[in-house]
Structures are given as C-alpha cells and as structure tokens.
Amino acid sequence: MKEILEAIQKIGVRIDSQIKRGETDKAQSFNTSGDQQVKLDILSDQIVEEELKKVSSIKEIISEEKSQPVEVNGKGEFLVAYDPLDGSSLVDVNLSVGSIFGIYRGDYKGENIVGAGYIVYGPRLELVWSGEDGKVILYRWDGEKFNRVEEVKLKEKGKILGPGGTQAKWYPFHKELIDSLFQEGYRLRYSGGMVPDIHQILLKGGGLFAYPATTDKPKGKLRRLFEVFPFALIVERAGGKASNGTRPLLELGYSSYHDTTPCFFGSSYEISRVEETYSANPL
Ligand code: AHG
Ligand code: MN
Ligand code: MN
Asked: What is the pTM for the complete model shown?
C-alpha cells in the first residue's frame, strides 16, 4: 500500500497548488449526489485519477464525482474510493478543504476497508494516513517533502463539538443530545468541511463530529464510500469510535456507490452518549 501513499502525496501537492491559483468559479455541471460542482472539483478529480492510474496495485477507482468505477489494472489488489475535494463549497471563502481516500479489498463494504487517508489544504499542507500497520500518522509538507509529525491518538473524552446538518430539521432528541453536551461544557467547532472539522477533533485528542439523519435527509448527507468509511477507519484506529447512532459504521454495506448514512465520529465518551440517545429513539 506504500505506493498508494506515495501517489496520495503527489496528489496533495498538485491539488494544493491548483487551489492556491485562486480559481473559485462554479462549473455548470452536477455530480451523482446532485451537488453543483466547482471547477476545482472536476480538476481535482482528474488529478487524482491521473496519479492513481499509475499505481499497478490498484484494480479500480471510483469517486464522488464519477457515476461508475474506472478500471485501472485488472490484476490489481486494491479498490480506491475517494472524494477529490471535500468542502468545495468553502473554496470561495478560503476555508480549509480536503481530499479523502478509502482503500478497499474485494468490494466497498465497510468491513473491507484496509487503509485510509486524507489531505488537509489549510494554511499548511497536511496528510493523515493509516495503512497496513494500523497506525494513524500525521505528515506535514515542508515545501519539498512530507515529514512524519506524530502518531494520532484520541483520548476517552474531548471538549469540542461539530454538529452538522440543518438545525431546523434535526429530530428533537438529537437537539436535546447536542444541547446537553453544550451544557456539559463542550465548545462549538464547526466549519462545514468534514476534513478540517474531524482533523481538529483528531489532533485535539477528542470530541464529537455529527452529521445526523434529519427530517429532510433521513439518510444523512455524507457518502459511505468516499467520506464515511475512510474516516470511520481512521477514527477507530486512532482509538475513537464511529457509529451510525446504533451500529459501528464499519459494519455497514452499500447498495449504490453514492449511498449516504447518518454518522458520528469521536472519542468513546461522546459516541456512548450518541448511542444511548439513538437506541432509546429508534428512527
Ligand atoms: P463535498 O464538498 O465533498 O460535497 O462535501 C461537503 C460535506 C462535508 O465536508 C461537510 O461536513 C458537509 O458536506 C456539510 O454539508 P452542509 O453544509 O450541506 O450541511
Ligand atoms: Mn465531501
Ligand atoms: Mn467533494
């Protein structure tokens, strides 16, 4: 899987330099999830495809911006599902965005994910990767190469909360849960970009990121293959938990490539609060 990490490093540098050129325009096209694309979504998808196609251990790739997988090497061992530019609606306001990668064997079920990584395009270029050894490692770009910074580990309990979704559409019990965590002293940390929002929780040692079922989106917004399973693997390997409210996210399958699911990522304490609430309030 080392060659996939190396390809992701190249992708990070290339997409970062495209973002820094300052193109923020929307495209006239929509992806399979119905989101209007920005030009950078399309360009980032092309860059990722170009770099992953050079890796012979990859059998096929699929992305948030593609309706179907693209074959790479029929004899390859890995399937890669990716979100080339996460948080692209934040590009125009110059907030951090990211790229997310899930490496699978066999098919794209949660239980088949064997590695994952994400890139953060922020004031610095950073990469978090978890490969065969099961560790979660933070790397930072110094202008010439990525250097290993530290192993990422979550504590039992954090202090920050990123509650996603439209509040007016939250179920009442979800609102009560979020209110009660704020009452306990949690502080709001939410940018609207899953990558920087979960990155903050991982590097600060804990907290909760939630993108729940809402009355207008009963299956949530975030996509299983490209966003949810990769972060579930990373958060769990860092010692945290990833749940759909009642079950570990990595126990879920998919019926179409762009399936979504409600999702909660965090340290053990916060996820146990989520699971108590959701098991008492079946949807
Ligand atoms: P993308 O830019 O790849 O479509 O994903 C954006 C995601 C995620 O980063 C974020 O947590 C969530 O969408 C926010 O969505 P809303 O602002 O629509 O709630
Ligand atoms: Mn995304
Ligand atoms: Mn995206």
From this structure: 0.98
